[in-house]
Write a structure and sequence with these properties.
The structure holds 2 protein chains of 2 kinds. By secondary structure, chain A is mostly helical. In chain A, about 70% of the residues lie in helices and about 0% in strands. Chain A has 2 domains: about 70 residues, no CATH class; about 110 residues, no CATH class. Chain B has one domain: Winged helix-like DNA-binding domain superfamily/Winged helix DNA-binding domain (Arc Repressor Mutant, subunit A, Orthogonal Bundle). Chain B is about 55% helix and about 10% strand. Classes of the chains: A mainly alpha, B mainly alpha.
Chain lengths: ~200, ~120
């Protein structure tokens, strides 16, 4: 008698286990344990325990397929997968603000990335390019002779606002471009493109 | 053990149950922790709430994952120790919020449903 009931329970749990196949292993085990405990507690209330009693107990518990469907429903929507840190992009942004060689590396990495649009990449490239302009400017200035730079001190009072801006732009533009790309990266992470 | 294609009435009940069942579970745990079988039987006694008792366990798992419910093992007077489900502070807050909103919601729906009775 009891062995027949045991066989019924065993078959029920095996059926449930196979129906839960596509759930994560720990979730599946937890659910199986809980249902098994339910059956144990329910059987303890049967006095005397009959095969019919166990059968109806399992009937009330429901079709394993229904339990599995409910489990998939409750857990099926996968928790938003943790986005891996986009190291390529992070390195690209750091490189971009380092003069000359860093900018070259940064631009290459920016164009290798798949997380930015072509427009973003162009902005990053042009923003960083001001280093190049500044470099050429410095070269041409020194080529013209160092009189302007070398003689009297070039105090701030002697620089016009335009000069200050022109002087600072090569330093600031790459940083602005890198910050812009960083923001675009964050915004991009929230688009559904990440889903498989 | 057959699977039914739900009719109009069943699908209506399924829809209404969907959003409320978890709060019924939380409400049953408000005053004391319960073990699974006890909890499920109490729910099953409420008409129309549960058709397959086993489907409560995925819900309990979800509530636990969301931190609204925790489990602890307690000795049982007969047989092996039992897993008891109990409300967390967060679960209590969720239940209180639902209770307030539910009262407001049912009041509004009741008023609309009865409008036809008192012209």
């Amino acid at each position: 008698m009891t062995t027949e009931a045991d066989a019924l329970v065993l078959r029920y749990l095996q059926d449930l286990e196979s129906q839960l196949g596509d759930l994560p292993a720990n979730r599946r085990q937890e659910l199986l344990d809980e249902v098994a405990e339910h059956i144990t507690a329910a059987r303890a209330t049967l006095d005397p325990e009959t095969e019919a009693g166990v059968r109806s107990l399992l009937e009330r518990l429901g079709d394993p397929a229904d339990i599995a469907a409910e489990a998939r429903d409750r857990f099926g929507v996968p928790a938003e997968p943790a986005r891996p840190t986009p190291w390529l992009e992070v390195i690209a942004l750091v490189a971009l603000v380092i003069p000359f060689l860093g900018w070259v590396v940064g631009v290459v990495l920016v164009w290798l990335s798949r997380l930015w649009t072509t427009r973003d990449k162009l902005i990053g490239t042009l923003g960083g390019m001001s280093w190049l302009v500044a470099g050429l400017g410095t070269l041409s200035m020194s080529a013209q002779g160092s009189t302007a730079v070398g003689s009297g001190p070039l105090g701030p009072t002697e620089m016009s606002l335009v000069e200050v801006v022109l002087f600072l732009a090569p330093f600031l533009l790459p940083v602005v471009a890198a910050i812009y790309l960083g923001f675009r990266l964050r915004a991009h992470g929230h688009t559904p493109q990440a889903v498989r | 053990m057959r699977r039914m294609v739900p009719g109009k009435r069943e699908s209506l009940i399924i829809q209404m149950r969907r959003g409320t069942l978890e709060y019924c579970v939380l409400a049953l745990l408000r005053d004391q922790p319960r073990y699974g079988f006890d909890l499920v039987r109490s729910l099953a006694q409420a008409d129309g709430l549960v058709t397959s008792e086993g489907t409560i366990y995925p819900l309990l798992g979800r509530l636990r994952r969301d931190g609204l419910v925790t489990t602890a093992w307690h000795e049982s007077p007969s047989g092996p120790p039992r897993r008891y489900y109990q409300l967390t502070a967060e679960g209590g807050r969720a239940l209180a919020l639902f209770t307030t909103e539910w009262d407001r919601f049912t009041d509004a729906v009741d008023r609309l449903l009865r409008q036809g009775d008192n012209p």
